Amino acid sequence: MIVFGLLSSIFDYLTFGALLLLLHDQPEQFRTGWFLESVISASLVVLVVRTRQSIFNSKPGKYLLMATLATIGVTIIIPWTPLARLFGFQPLPLSFVLVLGAIVVFYVTAAENVKRVFYNHVKF
């Protein structure tokens, strides 16, 4: 399971690098981007690692799916609500939201591929 921690760290560094490179000295937007990427990717990776099967071949339970979608929905909305001030968030430009979305897609895809390799080499 260490491999999933390493994968997570790789994508944390990728996100950190993208945030630093694209947002320069804007701590509120950096904080917002980090929040969006980390919560959304963690929520989706739960769906990946919950089963040995492909994420597309194994439907999650109704309550897990509802909780995941609710978490992602609330996470996306918070930076554009009055709660944003409480957390020190600031809305991100759409172009950067798309960059974060791409990072999340690559992370979930990588987690699915690593899971496949992991289960092919580790039997339990």
> Into how many domains do the coordinates divide?
1
Per DSSP E runs of 2 or more residues, the count of β-strands stands at 0
What does the average pLDDT come to?
93
Query: Major beta sheet, specifics?
Result: none
Number of helices: 5
Beta-strand percent range: under 5%
Intertermini distance = 12 Å
N-to-C SSE series?
HHHHH
Radius of gyration: 16 Å
Question: Pairing-aware structural class of the strands and helices?
Answer: mainly alpha
Give the % helix. Answer: over 70%
Oligomeric nature of the chains: single chain
Poorly predicted regions are none
Shape: globular
Please characterize this protein's 3D structure:
- The protein is mainly α and 124 residues long.
- The chain has one domain.
- 76% of the residues lie in helices and 0% in strands.
- It has five helices and no strands.
- The protein is globular.
- The mean pLDDT is 93.
Quickly list its features.
mainly alpha, 5 helices, 124 residues, single chain, globular
Short characterization:
By secondary structure, this protein is mostly helical. The protein is built from 5 helices and no strands.
Blueprint of the fold:
Elements: H1 2-23, H2 27-49, H3 62-77, H4 83-87, H5 94-121
Helix pairs in contact: 1-2, 1-5, 2-3, 2-5
